[in-house]
Amino acid sequence: MSDPIWVEVCDAEDIEEEDVVRFDYGDRTFAVYRTDKGDYYATDGYCTHERFHLSNGLVMGSVIECPKHNGRFDIPTGAAKRAPVCVDLTTYPVKLDADKVYIRIPS
């Protein structure tokens, strides 16, 4: 497998505080977040319960609530926090460079 690569997602200002956006790259989809503290994070895009996209969910501080069955995940760690979800999300490193948001993903 190749080394991970940094991929530009969007301008930093395109994600409001306590918001999430969808980002598709190749055949993969991600959710990219900005918490209430202004920090940026990225996870797999689909809920681990029934593959509903988290970009339609609700960000509350550093928690994302899936819009389908209200399961919750901790955004920084991807940890499942409330049923029906019980499998953690995969998280990805995020960096800001020149007011752009980048995520590091396997190539």
From TrEMBL:
Q: What Gene3D superfamilies does this protein map onto? A: Rieske [2Fe-2S] iron-sulphur domain
Report which superkingdom the organism of origin falls in.
Answer: Bacteria
Name recorded for this polypeptide: MocE family 2Fe-2S type ferredoxin
Q: What family, per the record?
A: Belongs to the bacterial ring-hydroxylating dioxygenase ferredoxin component family.
Which part of the chain is the Rieske domain?
7-103
Q: Which cofactor does it need?
A: [2Fe-2S] cluster
Enumerate the PROSITE patterns for this protein: RIESKE
**Annotated NCBIfam families:** MocE_fam_FeS
Q: Which UniProt keywords apply?
A: 2Fe-2S, Iron, Iron-sulfur, Metal-binding
Q: Where does the signal peptide begin and end?
A: none
